């Protein structure tokens, strides 16, 4: 027994321990942040990605790029999760978050090589995070959300780095309009959910981007069920249902015993009477439009057409709730329970239009709608998809501003200011934690550095000048002008960012770096693929065959 190695872990597993694992994680994080490094700022590059289905994605949205990339390394995977969390939480700042997180990891490398314990590094990082969040709160400016131009400042800066910027204020106007319409519902705290639910983006290829608009109402991709039904109605009375307008079959096996030849016609007549009864329950409220989420039989269409009613069937649940919000109708489950208060009368015009190859039903000119459809037109699907991603970011920024109406100067000015203030505070930090604390301050400079590098400016000179400006009092607004690469005052060129986005970027970057630094063991390939082992072991044994296989 002496000298025989004790094997605990399966021989097939790959294991990295201690410093090797930590340095591997740092490298992986840096590799992920390098992918999106060139997509920061207004002079950013686009990435073209081929998905497995052969489709093409062209974008400079950090989250969209990382979502499409297939990655092996576990630490890199967690960085991608981080971009997704940032996107879901605040909708913008994904690229900056990833770049910062990668830089935080690189900043920790010298300490790990000098055998400083990761816990010490993590403590220094968390201390720096606390201080930077309090500095952000301190330098943020309150704005008045009632003034359109103040909100537009932040929205234009958000769009400034995107593909949609070439069309001026188009996307920011759309998102501001949509947010204001949804806000009429009055629930600011749940605005994120409300925007996802009640501001639907409809992409219709064709036309020009300038034709994009926000409807004071809703549009759905449906036509009326019968060609003779009215396709344009002023001030319609709308009834919304989520039940079928068909004859209900018996739930279990139904046997009918027929003794004379008229029995069959009687049975069919009963079905007709049942449907007629259902339609009468609806028609007595004198509706102009009936919309249901389920099917409508030919018979029901016939009865409703006689009553001069237009019918739309198989509408999505989400579309139905939006129509309810704009028309004031209530979605009803059984036609016999309909009441006068359930009928929607707030919609001004209903019309069906043909755009391209499809028919679309419009419910517009509504009185104070609390839901809307955003229609995007564009030359190709790729352009439309990119515009939709930009619109999603812009809507998220609008939502952040209404929830927390505070702005910070953009263009790397905030990062330089926080960096300068952290370096001042660093001397008061005791013990080993001071070194990682300073490292965070220097790592924050990656944002202005990348901004100027993407413009092709002289990075070293720009950063030295910026440091000098921020070390003096009153230098808060100095940052990099992303278009020229020169230093400019952010309040003069109107580059602003919402406080909530910036806070989330700092938190995500530093917290994820701390989490990855505390990993000192990476074990991969823990379980063998059982199918392979089963196949190898069972070659000589007869295969268990039964059913179709045995019968050939």
From TrEMBL:
Family: Belongs to the TCP-1 chaperonin family.
UniProt keyword Cytoplasm present: yes
Organism: Paramecium octaurelia
InterPro entries noted in UniProt: Chap_CCT_gamma, Chaperone_TCP-1, Chaperonin_TCP-1_CS, Cpn60/GroEL/TCP-1, TCP-1_chaperonin, thermosome_alpha
Official protein name in the record: T-complex protein 1 subunit gamma
Region (Disordered): 528-552
Keywords: ATP-binding, Chaperone, Cytoplasm, Nucleotide-binding
Role according to the record: Molecular chaperone; assists the folding of proteins upon ATP hydrolysis. Known to play a role, in vitro, in the folding of actin and tubulin.
GO molecular function terms noted in the UniProt entry: ATP binding; ATP hydrolysis activity; ATP-dependent protein folding chaperone; unfolded protein binding
Self-association state and partner proteins as the record states: Heterooligomeric complex of about 850 to 900 kDa that forms two stacked rings, 12 to 16 nm in diameter.
Superkingdom of origin organism: Eukaryota
Localisation per UniProt entry: Cytoplasm
GO cellular component: chaperonin-containing T-complex
Main localization, broad class: cytoplasm
PANTHER family cross-referenced by the UniProt entry: CHAPERONIN
